[in-house]
Structure formats: structure tokens, C-alpha cells
Amino acid sequence: MAEKLMKYAEATQQYDVVFGLETHVELSTDTKLFCPAHIEFGGEPNTQLTPVSLGLPGSLPVINEKAVDYAIKLGLALHCKINEWSQFARKNYFYPDMPRDYQISQYDKPTNGEGYLDVELEDGTIFRVPIERAHIEDDAGKNTHVGGADGRIEGADHSLVDYNRAGVPLIEIVTKPIEGAGDRAPEIAGAYMRAIRDIVRALGISEARMEHGNMRADVNVSLRKSPEDPFGTRSETKNVNSFRGIEKTIQYEIRRQAARLNAGKEILQETRHWDEASQTTAGGRLKSDADDYRYFPDPDLVMLHITDEHIERMKAQMPEMPRERRNRLKAEWGFNDIEMRDVINADALDLIEQTVAAGSSAAGAKKWWLGELSREANEQGKALEELGVTPDDVAEVEKLISSGALNDKLAKQTMACVIAGEGKPEEVVKAHGFKVMSDDGALEQTVQEAMDANPDIVAKLQSGNMKPMGAIIGAVMRATKGQADAKAVTKIVMQKIKG
Amino acid sequence: MSDANSLVQLSAARMGEMLRAKEISSRELVDAHLDVIESAEPSVQAFLKISADVAREQADAFDALSDEDKAALPELAGVPIAIKDMIVTKGIETTAASRILEGWVPPYDATVIERLKAAHMPLLGKTNLDEFAQGSSTEHSAFHNTNNPWDLDRVPGGSGGGSAAAVAAFEAPLALGTDTGGSIRQPGALTGTVGVKPTYGGVSRYGAIAMASSLDQIGPVSRTVLDSALLQEVIGGNDRRDSTSIPEPVRPVAAAAREGLKGDLKGLKVGLIKELQGEGFQPGVQARFDESVALLKEMGAEVVEVSLPHLEYALGAYYIIMPSEVSSNLARYDGMRYGLRVMPPEDVPQTAANMMAYTREAGFGEEVKRRIILGTYALSAGYYDAWYGSAQKVRTLIIEDFKRAFEQVDVLVSPTSPTTAFRFGEKTEDPMSMYLNDIATIPANLAGVPAMSIPAGLSDDGLPVGFQFIAPQQRDEVMYKPAAALETALEQRWQGPIWQDMKTPWLDGLNK
Amino acid sequence: MPTFTREEIMHLGNLARIALTEREIDSISGELNVIADSINKVQQVAGEDVPPTANPVPLEAYLRPDTPETPLTQEQALAGAPVKENGMFVAPRILGEE
């Protein structure tokens, strides 16, 4: 039963949008938040457990120092107030994938308090997203639903539980209600999420791969008539795991809620789910007494004390933040706004930086990663770094071009062979005998043959009309299978005409 | 000396001496106790599980050690011990006396068990308790009652009735207990044994099945003060697997106990807790208590009365904090990973949530369910501040009361339990009267201070009375000295240990 | 002052995932009302100026190094499982109950 929707432009004209994001970022520590079980993506089910992460009677949690370090770094990056004393609390609810049937999280005393993140929008506008808190908590296991269609929970007969993920450290970054976004709410949400991803990657605290589920967000949306009104009732769409999904969830919720409000219906306080297939959110469960999580300080853990010294130690390890780095690289590379945006959108910043570091020009690196390689990645449905081409490879090909050893055409052929897994550029060039034919006798002979075969064109050239030069070059190229250097061909032709 | 009857009546410290002197072997000690267990269990029923093979194997391993290796071990090396079934033992079924955990064989050892094993102390078996240590009589065990060796028609106290009864009946020279509101000390009082709750954080809780995490503490059960001290030194000290473990070595309690045996208490200031005497305490209990106080004075202690004004709120705070933590700690027993699973009846949807609800309904006993419901309420939205929040504040007030008291005196004293051992069924009908049993023991748990109970003689009914010492946090040795002194003075007066008056028919047939 | 009605006990049973019987609901509501009276006393002294104590011994958290230790084997992890399949624990049908 599809819900009625209002046109987006109309909805954002009639209503003031307020939204919020709760982003879960899985930390890339070696061991779990509260026990020394190693963490590995994949792996046999139920093999990454200690008595603690399996919730065995008598087991007790002990905090992982690395997780705290990571939390402090994220707090610094988000300009959060880092609380000297924070506390872990139990969030009590029953679910088969929760080994203790309570989650250890932070409640009224989170490690990171208020902060903000400035995000840059497509047009260069800076929007400040206010952060409420960024707290530490542990993840649950994974259920696989058996007996239903497509492994979905609905209609499943039973579920298989793998607790390997249980206890993996997470940081939940909670924004304050974000006001004043208007019709740009989806764009801001997307930019914010990408900025968070870039920051946690720059900090080296998370893989932040949404497709692996190590970054996901709950999206809250509410509408009100005017910014002066109190907040409207919000919907909460859980566990959205793609940037596009987050943008579309907000868009959809704005349109859905506006239609309801206009029809005089109330907004239900409920949790919803984003359905990628239908591009809609589906109603879930109403907020109820079952949400009474009975938080209380975990008596198995004592207060977490973060000293100034600890914070200073983390500060000293902070890398350059993504936005500052982008601005610096843009200046160093001499790119304009649009070029830089294309680089970011193509997810090629790191690759280009590494390619330049390996000796390529910035323009040359950009040309490859945003051109040929992006096209290829797109066709193969892969990320750029999964193509099998390294920044060193690209820099090597660029060097061969600038030294004149390869022309554009041969360079592309070389790259295609590298993508196909034939080896490093030099190996490919050697194996295929790719070589630019320059001004030796063989080339002169070939040029003469091309001129002899096209007397009318030669006549035009002799009369001073240089336009058909391309036809001669083309003929030479065909004859040499692309190994000729176009400049050298032109030079020989000119000499012959004059002679 | 291999006469089992007399062997098992020795103190653990003496057994240790004889082992070192090679007058006996650990295997002989284990076998003697297994003999007593066999003969006593039909009437006492202190054990849920007897691990005879494990104990014999451990004893043989100790006996096979070189003299040099033995010399490096603690004094209690080779002396067997019984373990409350609230403590996790690798490869030995651990149930917390609950149907919901029946059959669970843990894949790991509690830290205290690791330390006992490192000290080569053989494990005789797992002792009975109130289900998940919730109760004061051991009547709430899902499996069977334990009978008080002094009078088999009476309870041994609880929750650690099994450990106390086993030690009182000479089935074990030592045992471990867990004490959340008096579960080591009150059974000690009711069975004429010594029971110690160390400072909170003094002994690792890793592997102690959690009842109320901020109150639980593992401690020794023995027949003499020195034995408890020696045992506390084996199991105590920092453990990195317990975040609430104090990062310091164990206190010098054995030296303090030995010092106390000299009987000189000059310079010691003893505080009688005004709120824990008189009304509500059985006259025979009060009389034995008063006599013991007089003995402390005779040995040179200065005795004054001190008031801890917030103790009247202790029971209320305890009955909020304890069930709150219980409700959360016992959530994990849901039929998914270990223990019992009960599917719902056919007319109820066969879902995971219903499976959990029917498993927990069938697997938990009434007292446990009552506490889970109470705790769920105390933590629920809208009541948290009034209940849990208030109780945490009362806890602060009680801690401050103790601090002030310890500015005036070195050690505090009170009767351990208001009454001697009661009859089966006498208090189960009325939870409030059962809860009142713990009135004198609860404050130490709320404040995290160490406390111990030692026998102070027999009441008019011929049953043992317990005398409680309470010391400041992480100063456990302060109570061991006067406790050992009082024990010596009382035994001089009685011309023998308290248990010389206990009838032990199960020992009679032993050496035939 | 709180009083425990049957409905309230049923609701608490639900939150605590215990399928209480009718008899238990009755007996627990009666008993809890008695206990509640004595418990309510704590509010008398819990003034705003009194800080709460969560843990009796004042410690700050020890932070464990991020170094892996030997985990349980899959066999050990599953040894107590009431029902298992393919190295995993089996849960009956999970509704979208969350």
C-alpha cells in the first residue's frame, strides 16, 4: 500500500524541515571493545569469541584502550567537548543476536559531548552540522534468516546466529536536530555522511565501508509549519547503509509527511526502514513501552577517566583533516573548483595524490583516474582501487608518455593490458613491443608511401592548406599499428613538401 | 596420622603443615574428605556436584611435585576445597542452583579457580545455594535443600548454605562463597563457621556468576580465622579481567590473624554499631554478642558505641540496587546460547521472543522471578530517579557514615544475623521477614567494606551465633586481628572449638 | 507511591521476557506492594545535593591493550547451545519485534 506523496518542491515550500542523523561507525581495532577476541571480516561463524563476547555467565568486560584512543581522535576531529569522566551504561532489551541481552553503551555521560562539523556542499557553501555527542558502544551479532524468501526476516522459519560481530566497537555520532536546511536537507545529509567517512578514514579508525555495514545511519525527519513552531513528530528510519539511500530517505520522508500533514493526518512516532528496491520507506514498529531500555550505569565497569595528557597524546597523532587537505592539494595541483569537485566525486583524491607522489604530473594523474580508469571501473562495477591498477602504474605510464616512449594511443593500450592483469606497464610494453616509431628510415619510408597513395591531399598541402594533414597521419598510423609519433610524421611531411 | 575422622577435623593451616612435613599426602586428605562426603551427604546435602576424579588427580599432581616446587607454593597447597556453584569451573558442571543453567559445562575457569589450581588446592565439588544466590536459607535451590549440620531440621542460612554446611560438617576444610548481602557471613553465623566478605574489588569477580555486580564479592569459608586469611591470600589481589578489581596486591591478612592469636588488643578501638543491636535481635544472639564484646575489652580493646544514622535506609536501598542489577545480569539466560530452552505451548506463536519468555518462566524459580520483576520496575522509565537514583544516593550516605565511623574507631562490630538457624519453610512465605535476616550484613556490601563473621557461641536454643567485624575499605587485615583474638579467647573459655558440641553421626562410622 | 497492579506486573513480565502465570502475577503483585513500602523510604533522604554512587570502591577504568588472545573454538562456543546448525546458534522465528 503506497503512501501518498507530495511533490518535493511543494513540500519544502510549505514545511520547515528538521532532520537528524545517528551514524554508527565500526572501529577498526584488532580486538573487541570489551574482550581480547580478534576481529576479522568474514571468517568462520562463532570463532571470534571469548567468554565475554559470548556472554557466558561470570564473564566481565574490560575496556579496549585503542577504542578509547579512536573515540578521542574522532571527538577532536568533530570539535567535541571530550569529557574528563565518562561512563558506560547498559541498554536493556532482549534480542537473539545480543549475547548478554543488553548492549553496553553510554547514556548520560558520553565520552564525547557537543561539537560540530562544517560540511562543504556542491556549490561550495559551508553548512555547520551541530553534533550532540559521539559515544562508544558495542555491536551485536548477525542473524541469517532461513526458510523465507531472499533471506528476509519476514516469512523466515528460523534464524542462525553468528556472534562474531558481537562486541565490535562502534562510535555512534548523534547530531542535534538540524534546522535551516530547507530543500537542501538531503544534500546536506549526504555531504555530512561523506565528510564523516573521509574523517574516520583519514584518522585511520574505521574502514567506513557502507557496503560492508561498518558505517550505517538512522535518519530522523520531522516537519513543521514554521521555524518558530516546536518540533513536529519525527519518524526514525533505521540502518540506512548507502549515501544515496540516506539522501533519498530524507527526500521521501519529507514528501510522505507533508502529504499526511496536508491531509490532516498525524505523523506517527515510529521506526521505519528504507527499502532500496521500491525506493520508499516502510512503516515499522510504533514507539512503545518496549522501548523502555532501563539504562543504568554498568556496574561491571568503572568511570572512564580521560586525562589532558591522554588528549594531548592523541592530538599529536592527528593527521590533517580531509577538508584542509583538499584545499591544500587543490592549490598544489592548480585545479579549479570544478576539477577538484570531479576528483572528490570520483573518489580519486587519494589515488591522484599517490600518483603525483610517484612522479606523475597532477593533470596527467587526473586525466587517467577520472578518464580511462573511471570508465573501466564503472563498466566493471568496481571501485577505482579495486581495478588492479596502482598509482605507481599510472605514474609509470605517464613517464613513458612524457619521455616520448609512448604516444597516447599506445599508452591506452598499455593501460588496458595492465587492467587485464598482464603485468606492470614496463612488462607490458616489453611483451607487446609497444614503441613509438620516430624519425628513422622506416618511418620516412612509410610516410612516403602514404603520400604517394594520396596525391590529391599532397597537392592541397603543397598549396598551403594544412587541414588534410590528419589524413596522412591517420594512414601512417594505420600502417604502423599506432607506433608512429604524430609529431614526427608531421615533421617529415613538411620537409618533403618543402623539398 | 591417617585416621580420617580426626584428619578432617584439623584446621586447613594444620593440614598444610602436615603436608609440608610429609606426615600426610594430599591424596590422603582428598580421600578422607571424599569419605566424609559420602557418609554425610545423605543427611546434609551440601553438594550439587562432587568432582572426586578431578580432586584426586589434582592431589596426585601435588604429591608428585618436588620439595622445592612445593616450598614455593602457598601454605594451603595440597589442601582440598569446595566451591559454591555460583563460581565457574572449567569442565565441571556449573548451575547456580538453577534449572535454567542445568547441564552447563563451562569452557573456562574463574580467576579464583585458576589461582586455586595454581596453588594446587584440589576441588572437591560444587556446593548448593539459593538459586543465583538469591535467598538466605538455601531453600531456593532448584535442586534440593541443604540441612544445617547442627540441626538437620533447620536451614544452614543462605545463599551459601552449601559451602557453610560442607565446612561445618567436615566435608571440606575450606570453601569459597559469594557474598552480595551476607551470603557468606550469615550462613557462617548459622553453621558456626567463619565467613569473610573481603573489600569489594579485593578478590576478582571474573567467573563469579553475577547476581548484583556492584555488591557481589567472592570470599573464604573456613572453621578458623587463620584458615580464611590464608585462603584470602591465595585468591585475592588484582585481576586485569575484572574492571572493578583494585590494582593492588592482596592485603597481609594472614600476618594480622597470627598477630591476633596472641590475644593482645591494646590500642584497638572497637565501635559497637548502635543501629544493629537490641530490638529485632534474638535475646540469645544479643547475649553471646555482649559476652564477646566483654572479651574484646578484657584483651585490652577500647569499646565505644558509634552511630551510622543512614543504616535504617540500607535495606530499602539494597532491595532496589540488588534486584535492578539482577534483572539485567540474568537477562542473558534466554535459551539461545546455553542452558535450558522451552518452546511455547502450541497455541502461542513459536517466535524467538516467546521462546525466551517461556524458557525464563520455566527455568527461573519464584524468588528469582520476583526480584527480576522488582528490578525491572526500579529501572523503568519514570521510576528510575525515585528508585534507582535514590538508592544510589543512599549508598553515598552509607559510605559516608562508615567513613565517619572509621574516623572514630578501627573496627566495627555487630551480631551477624538477628536470629539463629530457623526451620525449613518458616520464612519462605513472607519475603520481607526473609529479607530482614540480612539487615546486619547488607551495609558492608553497599559500602564495599570488608566484613567477616566468626562463631560467638551457642544461643539458648543450642544453635550457633555469629559475631561480625567490619573494617575500612582495603584494610581487611584490621578485622582479622581482633577476629583471631576473639576466636582464641572464646575457645579458651569453651575449652575447645565450637563444634565440639555438634553431633556428627556421619563421622562415627568412618574408620570401620 | 507506587502500587503494583496486575496489569503492571504483566507489563513488567513482558519487559523482562518472562511468561508469568496468572498465579504468579497475583502473588508477585501482593508481595511487591509489601516490599515497596519499605523501599520507598529511601526517597526521604535522597536529597538533590547527594551524589549517587554506582560503585562502592572509587576506581578509574583500566584500559586493556588492543592485543588478541586465543578465542574459544567454535566447538567450545557452541557446546552449550540448545539448538545449533552449521556452526551457528539457532533462534526460532524472529518477528520484526526488535
Automatic annotation (TrEMBL), chain A:
The protein's enzyme class: ligase
GO MF term list: asparaginyl-tRNA synthase (glutamine-hydrolyzing) activity; ATP binding; glutaminyl-tRNA synthase (glutamine-hydrolyzing) activity; transferase activity
Catalytic function, reaction form: L-aspartyl-tRNA(Asn) + L-glutamine + ATP + H2O = L-asparaginyl-tRNA(Asn) + L-glutamate + ADP + phosphate + 2 H(+); L-glutamyl-tRNA(Gln) + L-glutamine + ATP + H2O = L-glutaminyl-tRNA(Gln) + L-glutamate + ADP + phosphate + H(+)
An individual GO BP term: glutaminyl-tRNAGln biosynthesis via transamidation
Species in which this protein is naturally found: Bifidobacterium dolichotidis
Subunit description: Heterotrimer of A, B and C subunits.
Keywords: ATP-binding, Ligase, Nucleotide-binding, Protein biosynthesis, Transferase
Keyword Acetylation: no
Enzyme Commission (EC) number: 6.3.5.-
Protein name: Aspartyl/glutamyl-tRNA(Asn/Gln) amidotransferase subunit B
Protein family: Belongs to the GatB/GatE family. GatB subfamily.
Top-rank lineage group of the source organism: Bacteria
Keyword ATP-binding in annotation: yes
Function: Allows the formation of correctly charged Asn-tRNA(Asn) or Gln-tRNA(Gln) through the transamidation of misacylated Asp-tRNA(Asn) or Glu-tRNA(Gln) in organisms which lack either or both of asparaginyl-tRNA or glutaminyl-tRNA synthetases. The reaction takes place in the presence of glutamine and ATP through an activated phospho-Asp-tRNA(Asn) or phospho-Glu-tRNA(Gln).
PROSITE patterns the record matches: GATB
Residue ranges occupied by any Asn/Gln amidotransferase domain in the UniProt entry: 350-497
UniProtKB/TrEMBL annotation, chain B:
Compositional bias (Polar residues): 139-149
InterPro entries documented for this protein: Amidase, Amidase_CS, Amidase_dom, AS_sf, GatA
Active-site residues per Swiss-Prot or TrEMBL entry: 84, 159, 183
UniProt xrefs under Pfam families: Amidase
Gene3D superfamilies linked to this entry: Amidase signature (AS) domain
Enzyme nomenclature, EC number: 6.3.5.7
Catalytic activity entry: L-glutamyl-tRNA(Gln) + L-glutamine + ATP + H2O = L-glutaminyl-tRNA(Gln) + L-glutamate + ADP + phosphate + H(+)
Region of interest (Disordered), residue spans: 139-158
GO molecular function: ATP binding; glutaminyl-tRNA synthase (glutamine-hydrolyzing) activity; transferase activity
HAMAP family linked: GatA
UniProt similarity note: Belongs to the amidase family. GatA subfamily.
NCBIfam families cross-referenced by the UniProt entry: gatA
Protein name: Glutamyl-tRNA(Gln) amidotransferase subunit A
Native species: Bifidobacterium dolichotidis
Gene: gatA
Automatic annotation (TrEMBL), chain C:
Gene Ontology MF: a single term: transferase activity
Catalyses which reaction(s): L-aspartyl-tRNA(Asn) + L-glutamine + ATP + H2O = L-asparaginyl-tRNA(Asn) + L-glutamate + ADP + phosphate + 2 H(+); L-glutamyl-tRNA(Gln) + L-glutamine + ATP + H2O = L-glutaminyl-tRNA(Gln) + L-glutamate + ADP + phosphate + H(+)
Gene3D superfamilies, per database record: Glu-tRNAGln amidotransferase C subunit, N-terminal domain (1.10.20.60)
One matching Pfam family: GatC
Superkingdom of origin: Bacteria
UniProt xrefs under InterPro entries: Asp/Glu-ADT_sf_sub_c (IPR036113), GatC (IPR003837)
Transmembrane domains' residue ranges: none
GO BP terms in the entry: glutaminyl-tRNAGln biosynthesis via transamidation; regulation of translational fidelity; translation
Sorted UniProt keywords: ATP-binding, Ligase, Nucleotide-binding, Protein biosynthesis, Transferase
EC number: 6.3.5.-
Keyword Ligase in annotation: yes
Family per record: Belongs to the GatC family.
Assembly information from the UniProt record: Heterotrimer of A, B and C subunits.
PANTHER family cross-referenced by the UniProt entry: GLUTAMYL-TRNA(GLN) AMIDOTRANSFERASE SUBUNIT C, MITOCHONDRIAL
Job description of the protein: Allows the formation of correctly charged Asn-tRNA(Asn) or Gln-tRNA(Gln) through the transamidation of misacylated Asp-tRNA(Asn) or Glu-tRNA(Gln) in organisms which lack either or both of asparaginyl-tRNA or glutaminyl-tRNA synthetases. The reaction takes place in the presence of glutamine and ATP through an activated phospho-Asp-tRNA(Asn) or phospho-Glu-tRNA(Gln).
Protein name per the record: Aspartyl/glutamyl-tRNA(Asn/Gln) amidotransferase subunit C
